[in-house]
Specification:
The chain contains six helices and 25 strands. The chain folds into three domains: 128 residues, Lipocalin (Beta Barrel); 94 residues, Immunoglobulin-like, CATH 2.60.40; 104 residues, Immunoglobulin-like. The protein has 379 residues and is an alpha+beta fold. A hairpin with a 2-residue loop joins strand 7 and strand 8. It is elongated, with a radius of gyration of 27 Å.
Protein backbone atom coordinates (compact mmCIF):
# COMPACT_ATOMS: atom_id res chain seq x y z
CA UNK A 1 0.00 0.00 0.00
CA UNK A 2 2.79 2.43 0.93
CA UNK A 3 4.57 2.04 -2.40
CA UNK A 4 1.33 2.65 -4.25
CA UNK A 5 0.60 5.79 -2.27
CA UNK A 6 4.04 7.22 -2.93
CA UNK A 7 3.86 6.36 -6.61
CA UNK A 8 0.65 8.38 -6.84
CA UNK A 9 2.40 11.31 -5.12
CA UNK A 10 5.18 11.21 -7.72
CA UNK A 11 2.74 10.85 -10.58
CA UNK A 12 0.80 13.82 -9.25
CA UNK A 13 3.94 15.95 -9.13
CA UNK A 14 4.83 15.00 -12.71
CA UNK A 15 1.31 15.67 -13.96
CA UNK A 16 1.18 19.10 -12.35
CA UNK A 17 4.54 19.97 -13.82
CA UNK A 18 3.38 18.98 -17.31
CA UNK A 19 -0.14 20.36 -17.11
CA UNK A 20 -1.12 22.05 -20.36
CA UNK A 21 -4.85 22.42 -20.12
CA UNK A 22 -6.77 25.47 -21.32
CA UNK A 23 -9.76 27.49 -20.21
CA UNK A 24 -12.85 29.01 -21.84
CA UNK A 25 -15.46 31.70 -21.21
CA UNK A 26 -13.12 33.93 -19.23
CA UNK A 27 -11.62 37.32 -20.04
CA UNK A 28 -8.11 38.44 -19.22
CA UNK A 29 -9.47 40.66 -16.46
CA UNK A 30 -11.13 37.58 -14.96
CA UNK A 31 -8.15 35.26 -15.10
CA UNK A 32 -5.28 37.56 -14.07
CA UNK A 33 -4.10 36.83 -10.52
CA UNK A 34 -3.11 33.93 -8.31
CA UNK A 35 -5.28 30.82 -7.97
CA UNK A 36 -5.04 27.94 -5.50
CA UNK A 37 -5.83 24.47 -6.85
CA UNK A 38 -8.17 22.05 -5.08
CA UNK A 39 -5.80 19.09 -4.86
CA UNK A 40 -8.45 16.44 -4.13
CA UNK A 41 -9.93 16.81 -7.62
CA UNK A 42 -6.64 15.60 -9.09
CA UNK A 43 -7.19 12.04 -7.89
CA UNK A 44 -10.51 11.76 -9.65
CA UNK A 45 -8.86 13.06 -12.79
CA UNK A 46 -6.18 10.34 -12.47
CA UNK A 47 -8.85 7.63 -12.28
CA UNK A 48 -7.74 6.19 -8.95
CA UNK A 49 -9.97 3.82 -7.02
CA UNK A 50 -11.83 4.89 -3.87
CA UNK A 51 -9.35 3.19 -1.52
CA UNK A 52 -6.37 5.04 -3.02
CA UNK A 53 -8.28 8.32 -3.00
CA UNK A 54 -9.06 8.00 0.71
CA UNK A 55 -5.46 7.03 1.46
CA UNK A 56 -4.04 9.93 -0.51
CA UNK A 57 -6.26 12.69 0.91
CA UNK A 58 -4.05 13.33 4.00
CA UNK A 59 -1.01 13.68 1.74
CA UNK A 60 -2.80 16.07 -0.57
CA UNK A 61 -3.71 18.26 2.39
CA UNK A 62 0.04 18.90 2.77
CA UNK A 63 0.46 19.91 -0.87
CA UNK A 64 -0.20 23.30 -2.36
CA UNK A 65 -0.40 24.18 -6.03
CA UNK A 66 -0.84 27.74 -7.29
CA UNK A 67 -1.33 29.13 -10.79
CA UNK A 68 -0.58 32.78 -11.48
CA UNK A 69 -1.67 34.51 -14.68
CA UNK A 70 -0.25 37.92 -15.60
CA UNK A 71 -1.62 40.67 -17.82
CA UNK A 72 1.45 40.21 -20.05
CA UNK A 73 0.30 36.78 -21.21
CA UNK A 74 2.51 34.62 -19.01
CA UNK A 75 1.71 32.11 -16.31
CA UNK A 76 3.61 30.47 -13.47
CA UNK A 77 2.77 27.23 -11.68
CA UNK A 78 4.25 26.32 -8.30
CA UNK A 79 3.70 23.13 -6.32
CA UNK A 80 5.11 22.76 -2.81
CA UNK A 81 5.33 19.69 -0.59
CA UNK A 82 7.41 19.22 2.57
CA UNK A 83 9.55 22.26 1.84
CA UNK A 84 10.31 21.21 -1.74
CA UNK A 85 9.03 23.21 -4.71
CA UNK A 86 8.45 22.46 -8.37
CA UNK A 87 8.01 25.43 -10.70
CA UNK A 88 6.87 25.81 -14.29
CA UNK A 89 6.47 28.92 -16.42
CA UNK A 90 4.94 29.49 -19.83
CA UNK A 91 2.67 31.68 -21.90
CA UNK A 92 -1.04 31.84 -22.61
CA UNK A 93 -3.15 33.37 -25.36
CA UNK A 94 -6.72 34.65 -25.25
CA UNK A 95 -9.06 34.25 -28.23
CA UNK A 96 -12.84 34.59 -28.38
CA UNK A 97 -13.17 34.52 -24.62
CA UNK A 98 -11.03 31.42 -24.35
CA UNK A 99 -7.46 30.89 -23.20
CA UNK A 100 -4.83 28.40 -24.33
CA UNK A 101 -1.66 27.60 -22.40
CA UNK A 102 1.47 26.91 -24.42
CA UNK A 103 -0.62 26.25 -27.52
CA UNK A 104 -2.76 23.56 -25.88
CA UNK A 105 -6.33 22.73 -26.73
CA UNK A 106 -9.29 24.58 -25.25
CA UNK A 107 -11.47 23.34 -22.40
CA UNK A 108 -14.65 24.61 -20.81
CA UNK A 109 -14.22 26.88 -17.80
CA UNK A 110 -16.27 29.23 -15.67
CA UNK A 111 -15.62 31.70 -12.87
CA UNK A 112 -18.22 32.24 -10.18
CA UNK A 113 -17.75 33.76 -6.72
CA UNK A 114 -13.94 33.71 -7.11
CA UNK A 115 -13.96 30.00 -7.96
CA UNK A 116 -12.53 28.91 -11.30
CA UNK A 117 -13.91 25.58 -12.55
CA UNK A 118 -12.28 23.75 -15.45
CA UNK A 119 -13.78 20.72 -17.11
CA UNK A 120 -11.02 18.29 -18.09
CA UNK A 121 -12.11 14.90 -19.47
CA UNK A 122 -15.48 15.14 -17.71
CA UNK A 123 -13.71 15.88 -14.43
CA UNK A 124 -13.97 19.24 -12.71
CA UNK A 125 -10.79 20.93 -11.50
CA UNK A 126 -11.41 23.87 -9.21
CA UNK A 127 -9.25 26.83 -8.24
CA UNK A 128 -10.00 29.48 -5.65
CA UNK A 129 -8.69 32.99 -6.12
CA UNK A 130 -5.91 33.64 -3.60
CA UNK A 131 -7.20 35.72 -0.72
CA UNK A 132 -10.79 34.60 -1.21
CA UNK A 133 -10.46 31.43 0.88
CA UNK A 134 -11.63 31.06 4.43
CA UNK A 135 -9.09 31.45 7.23
CA UNK A 136 -5.89 29.63 6.30
CA UNK A 137 -5.04 26.33 7.96
CA UNK A 138 -1.82 25.80 6.02
CA UNK A 139 0.76 23.87 8.04
CA UNK A 140 4.34 24.97 8.54
CA UNK A 141 7.16 22.91 7.01
CA UNK A 142 7.92 21.27 10.36
CA UNK A 143 4.24 20.50 10.95
CA UNK A 144 4.01 18.96 7.48
CA UNK A 145 7.00 16.72 8.11
CA UNK A 146 5.63 15.59 11.49
CA UNK A 147 2.28 14.75 9.91
CA UNK A 148 3.99 13.04 6.97
CA UNK A 149 6.09 10.83 9.25
CA UNK A 150 3.02 10.00 11.33
CA UNK A 151 1.15 8.90 8.21
CA UNK A 152 4.06 6.78 7.04
CA UNK A 153 4.41 5.24 10.48
CA UNK A 154 0.75 4.25 10.43
CA UNK A 155 0.92 2.85 6.91
CA UNK A 156 4.08 0.84 7.52
CA UNK A 157 2.07 -1.12 10.06
CA UNK A 158 -0.01 -2.57 7.20
CA UNK A 159 0.95 -5.41 4.91
CA UNK A 160 0.10 -5.58 1.20
CA UNK A 161 -3.47 -6.66 1.96
CA UNK A 162 -4.01 -3.86 4.44
CA UNK A 163 -3.80 -6.13 7.50
CA UNK A 164 -2.02 -4.95 10.58
CA UNK A 165 1.60 -6.06 10.85
CA UNK A 166 4.34 -5.27 13.33
CA UNK A 167 4.22 -1.80 14.82
CA UNK A 168 6.68 0.73 13.41
CA UNK A 169 7.75 3.52 15.72
CA UNK A 170 9.36 6.75 14.48
CA UNK A 171 11.48 8.12 17.31
CA UNK A 172 14.67 9.99 18.10
CA UNK A 173 15.80 13.55 17.58
CA UNK A 174 18.81 15.15 15.94
CA UNK A 175 20.93 17.66 17.83
CA UNK A 176 23.28 20.02 16.03
CA UNK A 177 26.29 21.28 17.99
CA UNK A 178 29.19 23.55 17.03
CA UNK A 179 32.20 21.55 18.26
CA UNK A 180 34.90 23.97 17.11
CA UNK A 181 35.02 27.46 15.62
CA UNK A 182 37.59 30.09 14.75
CA UNK A 183 37.28 33.75 13.74
CA UNK A 184 39.85 35.54 11.56
CA UNK A 185 40.10 39.10 10.22
CA UNK A 186 41.72 38.72 6.81
CA UNK A 187 42.59 41.79 4.78
CA UNK A 188 42.74 41.57 1.00
CA UNK A 189 40.90 43.28 -1.84
CA UNK A 190 38.11 43.54 0.74
CA UNK A 191 38.31 43.37 4.51
CA UNK A 192 36.45 40.24 5.51
CA UNK A 193 35.91 38.71 8.91
CA UNK A 194 35.78 34.94 8.46
CA UNK A 195 34.42 32.30 10.79
CA UNK A 196 35.20 28.64 10.16
CA UNK A 197 33.38 25.98 12.18
CA UNK A 198 32.89 22.28 12.56
CA UNK A 199 29.40 21.12 13.51
CA UNK A 200 28.27 17.67 14.56
CA UNK A 201 24.98 15.85 14.97
CA UNK A 202 25.18 14.58 18.56
CA UNK A 203 21.57 13.37 18.55
CA UNK A 204 20.11 9.99 17.64
CA UNK A 205 18.28 10.95 14.42
CA UNK A 206 19.22 12.67 11.19
CA UNK A 207 19.15 16.46 11.04
CA UNK A 208 19.61 19.22 8.46
CA UNK A 209 21.61 22.43 8.82
CA UNK A 210 19.03 25.13 8.26
CA UNK A 211 20.57 28.59 8.63
CA UNK A 212 23.84 30.25 9.58
CA UNK A 213 24.23 33.78 10.85
CA UNK A 214 27.35 35.79 11.64
CA UNK A 215 27.41 39.03 13.64
CA UNK A 216 30.73 40.89 13.92
CA UNK A 217 31.22 43.21 16.91
CA UNK A 218 33.63 46.00 17.84
CA UNK A 219 35.37 46.42 21.21
CA UNK A 220 32.26 48.08 22.67
CA UNK A 221 30.10 45.15 21.62
CA UNK A 222 28.33 47.10 18.89
CA UNK A 223 27.47 45.37 15.62
CA UNK A 224 29.64 46.45 12.70
CA UNK A 225 28.67 43.80 10.14
CA UNK A 226 26.47 40.76 9.76
CA UNK A 227 25.51 38.06 7.31
CA UNK A 228 22.62 35.62 7.52
CA UNK A 229 23.81 32.93 5.14
CA UNK A 230 26.99 30.93 4.79
CA UNK A 231 28.50 27.93 3.04
CA UNK A 232 27.51 24.56 4.43
CA UNK A 233 28.85 21.29 3.07
CA UNK A 234 27.01 17.98 3.48
CA UNK A 235 24.22 19.73 5.35
CA UNK A 236 22.26 16.50 6.02
CA UNK A 237 23.88 14.82 9.01
CA UNK A 238 23.26 11.34 10.35
CA UNK A 239 23.86 10.72 14.07
CA UNK A 240 27.56 11.19 14.82
CA UNK A 241 28.41 12.83 11.49
CA UNK A 242 30.11 16.22 11.31
CA UNK A 243 30.65 18.82 8.61
CA UNK A 244 32.12 22.26 8.00
CA UNK A 245 30.59 25.73 7.93
CA UNK A 246 32.16 28.85 6.40
CA UNK A 247 30.70 32.32 6.73
CA UNK A 248 32.15 35.81 6.38
CA UNK A 249 31.14 39.46 6.40
CA UNK A 250 32.68 42.62 4.93
CA UNK A 251 33.64 44.89 7.85
CA UNK A 252 35.06 47.71 5.72
CA UNK A 253 37.39 49.96 7.71
CA UNK A 254 35.96 48.96 11.10
CA UNK A 255 38.02 47.14 13.73
CA UNK A 256 36.41 43.79 14.61
CA UNK A 257 36.99 42.51 18.13
CA UNK A 258 34.51 39.63 18.54
CA UNK A 259 31.78 37.72 16.75
CA UNK A 260 28.65 35.69 17.31
CA UNK A 261 27.94 32.58 15.22
CA UNK A 262 24.50 30.97 15.10
CA UNK A 263 23.82 27.67 13.31
CA UNK A 264 20.25 26.41 13.39
CA UNK A 265 18.87 22.98 12.57
CA UNK A 266 15.77 21.60 10.89
CA UNK A 267 14.32 18.15 11.45
CA UNK A 268 12.83 18.11 7.94
CA UNK A 269 15.33 15.67 6.45
CA UNK A 270 14.31 14.92 2.86
CA UNK A 271 17.76 13.98 1.53
CA UNK A 272 20.96 12.38 2.73
CA UNK A 273 24.61 13.07 1.98
CA UNK A 274 26.25 9.82 0.95
CA UNK A 275 29.93 10.02 1.84
CA UNK A 276 33.00 8.54 0.17
CA UNK A 277 36.60 8.11 1.40
CA UNK A 278 38.93 11.10 1.02
CA UNK A 279 42.52 11.43 2.28
CA UNK A 280 43.95 14.95 2.24
CA UNK A 281 47.28 16.70 2.68
CA UNK A 282 48.93 20.10 2.28
CA UNK A 283 51.24 21.08 -0.56
CA UNK A 284 53.01 24.26 0.57
CA UNK A 285 55.49 26.50 -1.21
CA UNK A 286 55.18 24.63 -4.48
CA UNK A 287 57.64 26.07 -7.02
CA UNK A 288 55.63 26.84 -10.13
CA UNK A 289 58.35 28.73 -11.99
CA UNK A 290 56.96 32.23 -11.99
CA UNK A 291 55.28 31.94 -8.60
CA UNK A 292 54.83 29.78 -5.50
CA UNK A 293 51.58 27.92 -4.86
CA UNK A 294 49.95 26.57 -1.71
CA UNK A 295 47.31 23.88 -1.92
CA UNK A 296 45.04 21.42 -0.15
CA UNK A 297 44.88 18.12 -2.06
CA UNK A 298 42.44 15.26 -1.48
CA UNK A 299 42.54 11.74 -2.89
CA UNK A 300 38.89 10.76 -3.38
CA UNK A 301 38.09 7.05 -3.70
CA UNK A 302 35.12 5.43 -5.36
CA UNK A 303 34.47 2.37 -3.21
CA UNK A 304 31.31 1.42 -5.12
CA UNK A 305 30.88 -0.86 -8.14
CA UNK A 306 29.54 1.93 -10.38
CA UNK A 307 30.94 5.08 -11.94
CA UNK A 308 30.55 7.96 -9.48
CA UNK A 309 29.56 11.32 -10.97
CA UNK A 310 29.26 14.88 -9.63
CA UNK A 311 30.98 14.33 -6.29
CA UNK A 312 31.53 17.29 -3.98
CA UNK A 313 34.71 17.52 -1.91
CA UNK A 314 35.04 19.68 1.22
CA UNK A 315 38.42 20.42 2.82
CA UNK A 316 39.38 22.16 6.07
CA UNK A 317 42.90 23.41 6.80
CA UNK A 318 43.98 23.07 10.45
CA UNK A 319 46.78 24.71 12.41
CA UNK A 320 48.91 22.98 15.05
CA UNK A 321 46.34 23.85 17.73
CA UNK A 322 43.59 22.07 15.78
CA UNK A 323 41.83 25.29 14.79
CA UNK A 324 40.25 25.53 11.35
CA UNK A 325 41.99 28.34 9.46
CA UNK A 326 40.51 27.84 5.99
CA UNK A 327 37.68 25.92 4.32
CA UNK A 328 36.93 25.41 0.65
CA UNK A 329 35.16 22.91 -1.57
CA UNK A 330 35.06 21.62 -5.12
CA UNK A 331 32.01 20.34 -6.99
CA UNK A 332 33.27 17.96 -9.66
CA UNK A 333 30.59 18.68 -12.25
CA UNK A 334 30.39 16.11 -15.05
CA UNK A 335 33.41 14.22 -13.71
CA UNK A 336 33.13 10.47 -13.27
CA UNK A 337 35.27 8.31 -11.00
CA UNK A 338 35.43 4.71 -12.30
CA UNK A 339 34.45 1.97 -9.87
CA UNK A 340 37.32 1.12 -7.55
CA UNK A 341 39.38 4.10 -8.73
CA UNK A 342 40.59 7.40 -7.30
CA UNK A 343 40.95 11.01 -8.37
CA UNK A 344 42.93 13.91 -6.94
CA UNK A 345 41.18 17.19 -6.17
CA UNK A 346 43.33 20.28 -5.57
CA UNK A 347 42.21 23.55 -4.00
CA UNK A 348 44.43 26.62 -3.75
CA UNK A 349 44.91 28.43 -0.45
CA UNK A 350 44.48 32.14 -1.29
CA UNK A 351 47.50 34.41 -0.99
CA UNK A 352 45.84 36.73 1.54
CA UNK A 353 45.40 33.77 3.90
CA UNK A 354 49.05 32.77 3.52
CA UNK A 355 49.97 36.36 4.44
CA UNK A 356 47.66 36.17 7.47
CA UNK A 357 49.32 32.94 8.65
CA UNK A 358 52.80 34.42 8.28
CA UNK A 359 51.88 37.70 9.99
CA UNK A 360 50.10 36.06 12.92
CA UNK A 361 52.45 33.13 13.44
CA UNK A 362 49.93 30.47 12.40
CA UNK A 363 51.58 27.07 11.93
CA UNK A 364 49.74 24.86 9.46
CA UNK A 365 49.39 21.24 10.49
CA UNK A 366 46.95 19.13 8.45
CA UNK A 367 43.88 18.91 6.22
CA UNK A 368 40.55 17.20 6.93
CA UNK A 369 38.39 16.25 3.97
CA UNK A 370 35.35 14.29 2.93
CA UNK A 371 33.58 13.64 -0.37
CA UNK A 372 29.83 13.34 -0.70
CA UNK A 373 26.74 13.34 -2.89
CA UNK A 374 23.36 14.73 -1.85
CA UNK A 375 20.75 12.08 -2.65
CA UNK A 376 17.00 12.50 -2.24
CA UNK A 377 15.51 9.98 0.16
CA UNK A 378 13.24 7.31 -1.27
CA UNK A 379 10.18 7.64 0.97
Amino acid sequence: MMKKVLSVVLALAMMLGLCGTAFAAVSQADIVGVWNMDMNAILNMMGEDEETIETMKPFLSMMKCTMEFTAEGTYAMKMSFLGEEENMEGSYELADGKISMDGGDFAEATIENDVLTIMENDTALTFTRAGAESESTEMSEDEQMAAFLALIGGMEGLDDEGEEGEETVVSGAGKLEVVSENGMFVKGYSNYYYVFAKVQNTGDAAVRIDECKLTVLDEAGAEIASRDYGDTFARFLKPGESTFVKIYADVGEAAPAAYQLTVTQNDNVYSEDVRYPADAEMLLNVDEGWTVGNYMVALVSNDTDEVLYDVEVAMALLDNDGRIVYIDDKHCFDVGIPAGSDIYVKLEIPEEFIEYYNTNGVKLQSVEAFAYQEVELDW
